[in-house]
Amino acid sequence: MLTPRMLTPIVAGLMLGMASLGLHAHGSKEHGPRQAVVKEQTGWGIAGDAEQVSRSLEVVMTDDMRFTPAAVKVSEGETLRIVVRNAGQMMHELVIGDSEALAEHAEMMVRFPNMEHDEPYMAHVPPGETAEIIWTFNRAGEFEFACLLPGHYQAGMIAKVVVESPRLASREHERSQSVQ
After folding, report:
1. Domain map (residue ranges) of the chain
2. Model confidence over 21-50: pLDDT tens digits?
3. Helix (H) or strand (E) holding 82
4. Which CATH superfamily is domain 45-179 in?
5. Regarding predicted confidence, which is higher, 131 or 30?
6. pTM value?
7. What share of the chain is helix, strand, coil (3-state, %, to 5)?
8. Is the dihedral angle over the CA atoms 108, 112, 113, 118 positive or is it negative?
9. What region does 77 belong to: left with phi over 0, alpha with psi -120 to 50, or beta?
10. Count H helices, E strands: the chain?
11. pLDDT at residue 81 tops 60
12. Residues 6+ away with beta carbon under 8 Å from 127
């Protein structure tokens, strides 16, 4: 039989594990202002600095479970101000990631629909409002924007993000110039 003394480390370990995952109750409340951004390198980039923004990109989310634009090209090392506008009547979000991480997180959202996540590569946007992500795409590759709210990802609310390395982009430019 487990005693209260035996349960304390178990409960503490579970709470620590949940905290390390960054999971919180979601509910319908609006998210408050973001706390100081923790810069943590991910496979798809790192939180950017406003002073380093090279361009702004508006991404519109709609209730037909689509992002506009549906595909974006970025140069490796580029810092974008992503202005995320919800043109729909329901809550949407934009989460940047690779396809594996997004699919895994979307599956968790289906199992735990009240889960909240707040990372610098995510924006939760109530209907008719806008949010902003400043992100440095410092890894070349193919990534995605996705809405991970239950049912949205499964309905195809995903956009492609191609981050080209400067070497690859200059080689393609040279090839296109030689063809002309």
Report:
1. 45-179
2. 333 334 444 444 555 677 999 999 999 999
3. strand 78-86
4. Cupredoxins -  blue copper proteins (2.60.40.420)
5. 131
6. 0.74
7. 25, 35, 40
8. negative
9. left
10. 3, 12
11. yes
12. 86, 88, 89, 90, 91
> Please, which pLDDT band fits residue 176 given cuts at 50, 70 and 90?
low
**Contact indicator for 42, 22 with CB cutoff of 8 Å:** no
Give the number of other Cβ atoms within 10 Å of residue 150's Cβ: 16
Q: Residue 22 has which token pair?
A: 């960054």
Q: Which amino acid is at 127?
A: P
Q: What are residue 166's phi and psi, to 5 degrees?
A: -55, -35
Collapsed DSSP state (helix, strand, coil) of residue 152? coil
Tokens coding 62:
């709609």
Cβ atoms of 52 and 79 within 8 Å: the answer is yes
Residue 85 CA to residue 93 CA, distance in Å, equals: 10
Question: In terms of Cα–Cα distance, which of 42, 13, 61 is closest to 135?
Answer: 42
